[in-house]
Amino acid sequence: MSMPEPRDSPVHGQAAAALAAAEVWRLMLEFTWAHRSRLYEVLKELGLTAGDMKALMALEPDQSRPMRSLAQVWDCDASNVTWMVDRLEERGYVERQLLSTDRRVKRVALTSLGVKAKAELLARLYEPPSGLVGLPLGDLNRLRAAMALLPLQPHPHRHPHPPTDASA
């Protein structure tokens, strides 16, 4: 029979931190889920789909990207990238570019209209919900400071999907 860890031990501290992180994550997800209709309203008003948003978010002004890299970023098949790029190209938001050194490689770039569309999308999405605006300034400052500490990318040694072939 093992003895419980003392409250001030590193193991107890790690367990407490893991429990607190799980609770914070749950609250973040619940808050986001409760406000998801705002996202869909913004997309509808702008005539965009969730896929369009995903595509626009992956592209930066003055930086074209190979279609293959978009498939990797979006974690999808190249045929899906073609379909999403087609949709945005029809609206004038992106253009395909051929590499002068390898004409088989197609790159995708935002057009000036696409830059404006992305900026409008982000401006609308960045409008905070009233429940957040209603928090006291001190709480907002602490929340902002804590959120600023979080990495924007998943841990590099943890892959979000299990390996797909037997050799991995």
Calculate the mean pLDDT score and round it. 85
- SSE order: HHHEHHEEHHH
**What is the name of the CATH superfamily?**
Winged helix-like DNA-binding domain superfamily/Winged helix DNA-binding domain
The CATH class is identified as: Mainly Alpha
Helix content: 55-70%
- Overall geometry comes to extended
In terms of DSSP E residues, the strand content is 5-15%
Annotated CATH topology? Arc Repressor Mutant, subunit A
Q: How many individual helices?
A: 8
What is the end-to-end distance?
A: 39 Å
- Based on helices, strands and strand pairing, what is the structural class? mainly alpha
Summarize the structure.
This protein is mainly alpha-helical. The protein has helices spanning 10-34, 36-46, 50-58, 67-74, 78-90, 112-125, 130-133, 137-148, and strands at 65-66, 94-98, 106-110. It has one domain: Winged helix-like DNA-binding domain superfamily/Winged helix DNA-binding domain (Arc Repressor Mutant, subunit A, Orthogonal Bundle), CATH 1.10.10.
